[in-house]
Input
Amino acid sequence: MADSVTVSSVHDKIQVVKEVKLRKRALLPLGKIFSLFSALLVFIGVYKSINLLSLMGYFLFLTLFFNAILASRRLRNITVKRYFPDQLYAGVPGIYQIEVNNVENKIIPPWYLIDASCDRGKGWAIPSLGAYARYYLQSRIFPLHRGYLELAKLELRGSYPFGLVQKRIWAEQKEKVLVLPKLGLSRPGSLESFIAKLSVLDDTGNVAQFHPLAQEEFHGLRVYRPGDSPRAIHWRTSARRGELMVRELEDFPGDDLLLVVDPGIGNDNELESFISFAATVVHDYCRARGNRMVVVVLDAEVAVFDERADYAFGVKVLRYLAASNACASDLEYRNACSKAVSLMEKLTLPPAVLALRRSNNSDSFEPLKERPAPFLDIKTAREKGIYEPPSLVGES
Output
């Protein structure tokens, strides 16, 4: 995974922190000159039988020895950790922070922090770190693929007090971050129109359609729950009861969606393109709407998500798709279909249905054999102007 990441450092909010080039060897340039000069003094002193020169040479070697012992003595009092404030998406530069914390009541002499993931081999020169002081550094990361990305351990280097010998220690744990799938581009309203034209009839005998401007049917009042829209709060009742109350609403049938994601069989480059396509559909639907959405993913481990379509729900589905793999065999695929059927039977499913498939096959689709539904693959979506892959979006 390390070769699939490109990281570039940017300036820290604290202006005194400077970027430095990496040096892998223990002896710094000054230390090399110092050691050569010491060896020269010892050689001349022994060869010419000048005891004072020999003594000076041995003293300089002793200075190198003590520098090697003291260089990392206090670095073990420092803790470093990365923080990712936002979700990372494959193919999109992201920003993360590194927290540097002195956990002891002692001043830490100047030292260096190295992030081995940096593409240009740069680190930071940290000034003296006061007792219980804390720094925040900022870097950029450019992940190329979805899934769990294991980052290299952060490295601390010290050469105090003489700057001759450099000692290195590493953070205790490696860090992993989940990279969400690449996102393409979908044309607003095109997906809803496609579903509305091909959806099955609902219980009233009408075709399930989307009503973006329609009013919802009022059912009653209930206590406010986290995630409810502030616009649904009934302020008069809330003031009278002393707690927030919201209107209980029922959506029109066509406003809810059952989305079946079928990655098929086999893990290859075609699967990556399909996962990106499915992630784009989920992301755009959740960004634009707030209705109920049921997502069924037919992979090696069948998953069902049933919540209101909002940003948090979209991220939850995308996090699952980021680590998802297709079924490895026909038997595993059939078992996944059977499991999906049993899970869907326990739910009251929305009438509007859409199935995303890797290829537009004409054979019977077991999870939806009782209720015909429109199928959509990448080729069809592009022909109808519904979807553009990430590569074409980047080029434009």
Q: What stands out?
A: The CA atoms of residues 92 and 142 lie 6 Å apart.
